[in-house]
């Protein structure tokens, strides 16, 4: 099956793929779906239900039991979509530092990935969607007609994240952010199942020293949409 109306955008942490996907979704009137929220929701559920997250079998059991869903934003509190975990709104609970620290481990488990991939396919079949992640073009929807892989150097990604963090008044240093980005890259790219890498037929965009407007223009050209 070919998902003509599904756009897959993959890339490393803080590469700007969500910002790009949101802009494309707005322009085409598509639904924006950031699949990282699924792994965050499993991590949240596992933190509540399993004592030791190193226990892969127990964490996988949780992933198989829960239902994660995404819906258009129901509130104007900065959210871009609603995230539901077994029907409960967990949009903000999945963004805590505790989830941040554990999500790479949880998302490396093969059984967790299988459960979440199935749920992403169920949601993707609704169509008219820009889906963002690490393995959308390679594993989740290898038949997606449009695939973009957004790249940026670790230093550039750390610089962008540092500016965001400073705006929020948090006290993390640039060096800490850079170290954390390098660590996540390492975990995401070296895991055995669905490692982070561009699909053979993906269009790679390098966003280093490019404004988001330029990246958007490049992406729209790749998608064959008029740039205006
Ligand atoms: O993009 P993010 O920071 O919300 O992603 C959270 C984690 O989930 C990150 O460690 C990578 C992982 N992830 C994944 O393995 N596959 C996806 N399709 C999306 C995210």
List the uncertain runs.
none
Mean pLDDT rating: 92
Biggest sheet overview: 5 strands, parallel
Please identify which CATH superfamily of the largest domain we are dealing with. Answer: P-loop containing nucleotide triphosphate hydrolases
Question: Tally of extended strands?
Answer: 8
The value of Rg in angstroms is 17 Å
The structure class reads alpha/beta
Q: Cofactors and ligands present?
A: 2'-deoxycytidine-5'-monophosphate
Taken from the alpha-carbon principal axes, the silhouette is globular
Task: Based on the coordinates given, report the CATH architecture of the largest domain.
Answer: 3-Layer(aba) Sandwich
Straight-line N-to-C gap = 31 Å
Question: Under CATH, the topology of the largest domain is which?
Answer: Rossmann fold
Reading off the top of the CATH hierarchy, the class of the largest domain is best stated as Alpha Beta
Strand order of the largest sheet: 2-6-1-7-8
Structure overview:
By secondary structure, the protein is α/β, with parallel strands linked by helices. The protein is built from nine helices and eight strands. The strands form two sheets. A five-stranded parallel sheet has the order 2-6-1-7-8. Strands 3-4-5 form a three-stranded antiparallel sheet. It is globular, with a radius of gyration of 17 Å. The mean pLDDT is 92. 2'-deoxycytidine-5'-monophosphate is lined by residues 13, 35-36, 39-40, 103-104, 107, 133-135, 184, 188. The site of 2'-deoxycytidine-5'-monophosphate has 13 residues, from helix 2, helix 4 and helix 8.
